[in-house]
Amino acid sequence: MGLIRLLVIAALIYLAWRVVKNLLSQANRRDNSAPGSGQDAQAMLKCAQCGVHVPAPEAFTHNGRHFCSQEHQRLYLEHHDH
Fold it and tell me: Computed from CA positions of residues 48, 50, 53, 59, in that sequence, does the dihedral angle turn out positive or negative?
């Protein structure tokens, strides 16, 4: 009888641990989905030449237009600034 009681107690402890872990995980997801709370979230900017999205710190900007590389910036300006 003592072994069964021990197994039931162990199962209850395990279930309680899983419930708490699940609740903490859900709270974490809710906190990270709030606007501006993501530490890894970066603004993505679309290249005016090819349409590829690049992180804002890596983009090249000229007159309000964004580019994924200096080469695409140069090509765009050669064809559109005349």
Answer: negative
Span 45-64, pLDDT tens digits: 999 999 999 999 999 999 99
Is residue 13 in a domain? no
Confirm whether 30 is domain-assigned.
no
pLDDT digit string (tens) for 23-36? 998 888 777 665 55
Predicted confidence at residue 39, as pLDDT, reads: 54
List CB contacts of 55: < 8 A, sequence separation 6 or more: 42, 43, 44, 45
Which domain does 53 fall in, by range? 44-80
Kindly report the number of other CB atoms within 10 A of residue 69's CB atom: 16
CB neighbour list of residue 49: distance below 8 Å, 6 or more residues apart: 67, 68, 72, 73, 75, 76
What total number of domains does the chain contain?
1
CA–chain centroid gap for 55, Å, is 12
